[in-house]
């Protein structure tokens, strides 16, 4: 997975974490300021249908994360789910050090 310089309105500043499920980037957003972009790891052999299903599941995860963040200060809110031109899927969420 290559590190993009930007995704839409998000400018990637640095990689802040990496694990078995993907990577996390610190980015600057034109609207929210600093955000975290979680890049979900997707199999290179995934079909378009599998990628679309994975995107739908991540949207559900992001909605639930946002709902939970309203009642639990230790859960950061999710703002968006992005699909890059290369098919990589990202969850955009609040950034905290």
Structural overview:
The protein has a six-stranded antiparallel sheet, with helices on one face. 23% of the residues lie in helices and 41% in strands. It has 97 residues and is α+β, with helices and mostly antiparallel strands. The protein has one helix and six strands, in the order ββββαββ.
Order of SSEs, N→C?
Answer: EEEEHEE
Largest sheet report: 6 strands, antiparallel
Number of helices: 1
Radius of gyration: 13 Å
Beta-strand portion reads 35-45%
β-strand number: 6
From the structure provided, what is the oligomeric state, counting identical versus distinct chains?
single chain
Sum up the overall morphology in one term: globular
Q: In whole angstroms, how far apart are the ends?
A: 24 Å
Uncertain segments are none
Mean pLDDT: 88
Q: What is the helix content?
A: 10-25%
Biggest sheet strand order reads 1-2-3-4-6-5
**Structural class, judged by helices and strands?**
alpha+beta
In short, what is this structure?
The protein is 23% helix and 41% strand. The chain contains one helix and six strands; from the N terminus they run ββββαββ.
Annotate the secondary structure layout.
Blueprint: E1 6-7, E2 10-19, E3 22-29, E4 33-40, H1 48-69, E5 78-83, E6 89-94
Antiparallel strand pairs: 1-2, 2-3, 3-4, 4-6, 5-6
Protein traits:
alpha+beta, 97 residues, 23% helix, six-stranded antiparallel beta sheet, 41% strand
